[in-house]
Specification:
Chain B is an all-alpha fold. Chain B is built from 11 helices and 2 strands. In chain B, helix 8 (220-249) runs antiparallel to helix 11 and helix 10 crosses helix 11. Mean pLDDT of chain B is 85; it is low at 1-17. Chain C has helices at 18-53, 58-62, 79-110, 115-127, 132-147, 151-176, 179-187, 192-220, 224-227, 248-256, 261-292. The chains are: A alpha/beta, B mainly alpha, C mainly alpha. Chains B and C meet through helix 1, helix 2, helix 3, helix 4 and helix 8 of B and helix 1, helix 3, helix 4, helix 5 and helix 6 of C.
């Protein structure tokens, strides 16, 4: 296996499955997609690209239980950022803090500061409704409303005040096209959204989210409930829309992170022996190629080479 | 231009930042409306207590503790109501004695014996029983059932004439309308609610316990006694209490078949009276203290049924909580 | 050489003796209890249908009752009672169903877990056990004494009866709507009221309507709350808001105690009509549950 060239990703091969535990192959990156930025480009971007999220020393509590501690990282515009890590490490908790969905949990509390385009999200005068209109979310299990496909996609624009039928038709078509679902459903827009297969339903939920033209799309393990072909469709979709949106995705599938993301954040679990609780924490955050091939932290290395999690 | 709000990084710093918005008035209003509707329940209950007690206050103040004497003579302005309390108790007890075994039996039939396909028709029959209006029971009761059962009463009275305990209980009837007839009709009417609640209670018994009993080679009866009964006896008590509450308050059917005679007697085949029945039959023409007395009976009825229902619901709630939580 | 022992006799038949007998007795008792219920139900329905069918006709439903002292002695009609039942029950439903749904929304979406919500939920269930005659006395004290007898008063009394029933059944339906739907709606930037009205209620609407229909069926058959609120009369009153009124159950009650055969025959006809109405509502509730309920236990 060749040593990967530091600056380009074009000559890399897929990692071969290891049969001998002693040999620890480095995780190679998928050559297929080229929309992903190179590590050098990413480092350069850090100076010029707008910060979408500045997460500074954030801890999230549910009541007195600390779910995540001291997370700090920056999410950049028009990039795909992946949160990976073992279960219970807080990656979903952090994701849901970005669009204030944790507000819906009784007793949830965020300490530290999360800034969205320079404005703090958790100030008293910030409306979570307005936040969620700009920062959309796709969930792990597809959750189409029990309405027609058309009404599912039109729901968001309608609650934002759009009632003109012609404009709604345009929005619905555009969103379904962006979600790569238009051709499959264009003749049955009136049929219930519940009648779709898993992959279609998830793309419907993505279309629904895109219909309000958010700034950011958060995805919580969007493909974990889907078969590999549907997963591939979702990943293609993410690359397609990247130029217009900023995407943050939580995934437990490392291969997926290497396939789609520009930067990856690796979270892990701190076990408190006294209270027997597990608290999540951010271990390492770097351009994806760098995190997987040359991680700085031992824990990251252990996770990405498969020894842990 | 679409009205969908768009985050604009280039927006001038002076403009209202798009993240700031007041909570829409409609959202607040809806929450207040929902809260008000919920509070309505409490408000109504309090108003019931207050308004009826106020209307009955002259009876309470005039008679004081004498309301619990058997001295009901409206023309002479005497309103001791013991006969009605007695009647309510007697008819309710008769109804419970007959309805509870039958209801629990049906509940067990549905949960343990009958395969699912056959349970739907049985449930339909129970629902049908529940949907028959009280007044229709009363109409049928007084015009068809009472004349027919009077003969049976007469036979029984003949047989047990002079027998210790049974004789005084089952003396000869004057007509079909009596405590016992009212009790039977009440039994028909409370069966659906006791059955459905017993079913719910029995359904909270964990399946593992039942399977464990069967796995030890128990017959169905043994499984019921060993696994179902210990778990559900509390809840079934609650179901029985709810049936009691319903039996105490059921008005129209009883008013038609109880015989309208304010006496305290051990003879169950004799005509009698109970609280809701006398209110129904006499309130229309009553005035002054008579009316206050009837209203007062309504207050007593309200208090009794509320107490019984609170106890019953508390018990049922506890067994339901066990299924959800523990 | 080893001696092969005789194989033990394994008896796999049912246990004999008291165990089997007691089990059989128990099963017989359970079946008997069901039969004990079918018999009177069948009896009542049979009688009502037999005696009522001969009286029912279009003119019965739309005609006026014939007073007993008018010749020729006849049956006449029940139109005043039919009209009264329809308008009073409809008004009661209009009052109680929206309030009940809103109350259930409060319990499930807003306040359910707190102490106030628990109290309201508990007392709502307790309220279903309040005797219907007490509701009648209540509305009499608080309304009729000030505003007189009217169909509206009767509707208020029926509404008080229906309210906790609608709250309980709607609450159960709202509980069954999965949380993922609410989250999907919140994530699109909807306010809580929007989430509830545009996603949660439509998802639960089948079960809610079914529960409301059953509550209406119960209210249609009630007599006691109407006794002191509408002051049963024998003429039709299309104005449900003022003036005394009548209803099918009220009419049956007063006819049941009259010795005139015409009145009794009208009573049976009215009973059949009333049962038919309640039955139709019950069937409608079942149909709605079967066809339109998405989330059920």
């Amino acid at each position: 296996m060749e040593q990967p060239d530091q600056d380009t990703v074009t000559n890399l091969q897929r990692a071969e499955p290891t049969t001998q535990p002693e040999v620890q192959p480095k995780l190679h990156l998928d050559t297929q997609q080229d929309a992903r930025l190179s590590s050098a480009a990413l480092e350069k971007a850090e100076e010029t690209t707008e910060h979408i999220f500045d997460i500074k020393n954030v801890s999230v509590y549910y009541g007195s239980f600390r779910a995540v501690t001291d997370v700090s990282l920056t999410i950049y515009e028009n990039e795909i950022t992946a949160f990976i890590g073992p279960s219970g490490c807080g990656k979903t908790t952090v994701l849901r803090s970005l669009n204030r969905m944790n507000d819906l949990v009784v007793g949830a509390r965020v300490e530290g500061d999360i800034q969205y385009r320079g404005r703090s999200l958790y100030r008293k005068d910030v409306s979570p409704i307005a936040v969620r209109r700009r920062i959309g979310m796709v969930f792990q299990k597809p959750n189409p409303f029990p309405k027609s496909i058309y009404d599912n996609v039109a729901y968001g624009p309608r609650i934002n005040g759009e009632h003109n039928k012609k404009r709604l038709d345009e929005i619905v078509e555009r969103s379904l096209r962006q979600a790569a679902l238009w051709d499959e459903v264009k003749d049955r827009l009136g049929k219930s959204g519940l009648g779709l297969s898993g992959g279609q339903a998830q793309r419907l939920c993505i279309a629904r989210t895109l219909a309000v033209e958010p700034d950011v799309v958060l995805m919580d393990e969007p493909a974990s409930a889907l078969d590999p072909i549907a997963t591939g469709a979702i990943e293609d979709l993410m690359r397609e829309i990247k130029s217009r949106y900023t995407i943050v995705i939580v995934t437990h599938n490392m291969q997926q992170a290497t396939r789609v993301s520009d930067r990856t954040a690796f979270y892990s679990v701190l076990i408190n022996p006294k209270s027997d609780t597990r608290t999540g924490t951010l271990v390492e955050y770097a351009p994806t190629a760098q995190l997987f091939e040359d991680p700085s932290d031992e824990r990251t290395k252990a996770y990405v080479t498969g020894r842990m999690g | 231009m679409s009205t969908v709000a768009q985050a604009d990084p280039a927006a001038p710093a002076g403009s209202a930042h798009p993240l700031e918005q007041r909570r829409p008035l409609g959202d607040r209003g809806f929450q207040i409306l929902a809260l008000a509707s919920g509070l309505l329940v409490l408000v109504i209950l309090v108003l019931i207590a207050v308004s009826t007690t106020q209307q009955a206050s002259s009876w309470f103040s005039t008679e004081g503790w004498k309301i619990f004497t058997n001295n009901w003579n409206p023309p002479a302005n005497q309103f001791g109501a013991l006969a009605f309390i007695y009647g309510t108790a007697v008819t309710a007890i008769i109804a419970l004695i007959m309805a509870v075994p039958v209801s629990v039996g049906i509940a067990l039939l549905l949960t343990e014996v009958v395969p699912y396909r056959w349970s739907r028709p049985i449930v339909y029959v129970i629902d049908l029983l529940a949907v028959v209006p009280s007044v229709v029971w009363g109409l049928w009761g007084i015009l068809v059932f009472a004349p027919w059962i009077q003969h049976i009463y007469a036979h029984i009275a003949n047989v047990v004439n002079g027998v210790w305990v049974l004789g005084p209980l089952f003396g000869p009837p004057t007509s079909g309308a009596s405590f016992f007839t009212a009790g039977i009709i009440l039994a028909f009417m409370i069966t659906p609610i006791v059955t459905s609640l017993s079913r719910e209670v029995i359904a909270t018994v964990p399946a593992i316990d039942k399977e464990g009993a069967y796995a030890l080679g128990a017959t169905r009866l043994e499984m019921i006694r060993g696994a179902v009964w210990p778990h559900s006896q509390g809840g079934i008590v609650g179901a029985v209490l709810l049936g009691l509450g319903r039996a105490m308050g059921e008005t129209i059917a009883v008013a038609l078949v109880i015989g309208s005679s304010a006496v305290i007697t051990s003879h169950l085949f004799a005509p009698g009276y109970n609280m809701p029945a006398v209110i129904a039959n006499e309130f229309g023409e009553a005035s002054g203290e008579f009316r206050a007395a009837l209203m007062g009976l309504g207050v007593l009825l309200f208090v009794f049924t509320i107490i019984v229902n609170i106890i019953a619901r508390g018990i049922v709630e506890r067994s339901a909580r066990r299924k959800r939580g523990a | 050489m080893a001696v092969i022992a005789e194989p033990r006799q394994i008896d796999l038949r049912e246990p004999k003796g008291w165990r089997r007998t007691s089990n059989r007795i128990a099963t017989v008792l359970m079946v008997t209890s069901f039969i004990l219920v079918i018999i009177p139900l069948g009896f009542v329905l049979f009688t009502v249908i037999a005696k009522g069918a001969s009286v029912i006709s279009w003119s019965f439903l739309t005609g006026q009752p014939i007073p007993p002292n008018v010749l020729p002695a006849g049956v006449g009609g029940m139109w005043p009672a039919v009209l009264g039942t329809i308008e009073i029950t409809a008004l009661a439903a209009v009052i109680a169903v929206p309030l009940g749904i809103l109350g259930a929304v409060y319990l499930n979406e807003y306040g359910g877990r707190g102490p106030l919500g628990a109290l309201i939920g508990f007392m709502s269930d307790v309220m279903t056990g309040v005797p219907s005659i007490v509701m009648g006395l209540f509305i009499f004290s608080i309304w009729v004494l000030h505003f007189g007898y009217s169909g509206l008063a009767g509707a208020l009394a029926l509404g008080c009866l229906m309210l906790p029933v609608v709250i309980r059944s709607s609450y159960e339906m709202l509980r069954l709507v999965p949380n993922s739907l609410r989250e999907g709606s919140y994530a699109l930037g909807a306010t809580k009221s929007r989430v509830t009205v545009t996603v949660v209620l439509p998802a639960a609407i089948g079960g809610i309507v079914s529960g409301a229909l059953l509550a209406v069926a119960r209210a249609a058959g009630e007599t006691a709350p109407l006794l002191f609120t509408i002051l049963t009369v024998t003429y039709a009153n299309p104005n449900v808001f003022s003036g005394p009124n009548t209803s099918l159950p009220s009419q049956i009650f007063s006819n049941a105690t009259q010795p005139y055969t015409g009145a009794q025959a009208r009573g049976w006809g009215a009973a059949l009509t009333l049962i038919a109405i309640c039955f139709i509502l019950m069937i409608a509730a079942r149909i709605v549950t079967a066809r339109f309920t998405r989330y059920s236990r």
